[in-house]
Amino acid sequence: LNVTQLAINTAITYMHRFYVVHSMKSFHRNEVSSSCVFLASKVEEQPRKLEHVVRVLYAVIQKEGPNALDIKSDTYQTMARDLVDNEQILLQTLGFDVAIDHPHTYVVRCTQMVRASKELAQTSYFMANNRCPCVSCCGCDLFRAFFSCFA
Length: 151
Known about the structure:
Blueprint: H1 5-21, H2 29-43, H3 50-62, H4 74-93, H5 104-113, H6 118-129, H7 140-148
Helix pairs in contact: 1-2, 2-3, 2-4, 2-7, 3-4, 5-6
């Protein structure tokens, strides 16, 4: 989907906040993760078309190309409707509080302020990036697949 690391981190944070409230048995991680990606791309001002997100989701799940899904098919219509419905549930779960204060901006500012070496700045950014609570059972592998497809 070709979005920034900030949007990826936002989507991961949304997913973790969602599963604090809801059971993983009630909501499948593939459906929730696609809704998180869709919402995060909008919040981080990198909106992606619903059609594109659904096609990538289909490609990841079915292990086929994104063009294998016809937008007039029942499968596409169902997936699109489910994604939008899950986005609404996600928003309600988050209490419509979609602003995420990521540490990355502070890391960049601090390393510039103290005139840190490039190596220290990269290490600091790496540590801030990996602080995202990332548990493989929550579908972060699906996030990686989403963002690696069609980059």
